[in-house]
Amino acid sequence: MGDSYKPKLSAADGKDPVLKKTELDYMKIIEQMNAERVKKLQSLTRRNRITGAAIGAGVVSIYLYSIFAVKQETFLDDFNEPVKVVE
């Protein structure tokens, strides 16, 4: 069963189907609403990406600061036992 088996759609009288003006107007309204929805979703996606990048940058900066701060600590490097005082 190839592509030739698929039935072709046509109007009952053999002419191409013609949409009414009200149907065309309704389609335009739906297309406009869909375009507005897509714009809202795109702006939401953009804001989410900016927020995610800001949070990620904050996490990375805190991590790097912590690593840098720990490397500067030297109080354990020169640890000598206190000298015993003999009396």
Write the layout of secondary structure elements.
Elements: H1 21-72
Question: What tags apply to this protein structure?
Answer:
Coa3_CC; 60% helix; transmembrane; Cytochrome c oxidase assembly factor 3; single chain; 87 residues; 0% strand
Q: By helix and strand content, what is the structural category?
A: mainly alpha
What percentage of residues falls in helices of 4 or more residues?
55-70%
> How many β-strand runs?
0
Low-pLDDT residue spans: none
Distance between the termini: 109 Å
What does the overall shape look like? rod-shaped
Number of helices: 1
The succession of helices and strands, N to C, reads H
Mean pLDDT: 83
The biggest sheet, with number of strands, parallel, antiparallel or mixed sense and barrel status, is: none
Radius of gyration: 36 Å
Structure description:
- With 87 residues, this protein is an all-alpha fold.
- It has a domain of 55 residues.
- Helices cover 60% and strands 0% of the residues.
- The chain contains one helix and no strands.
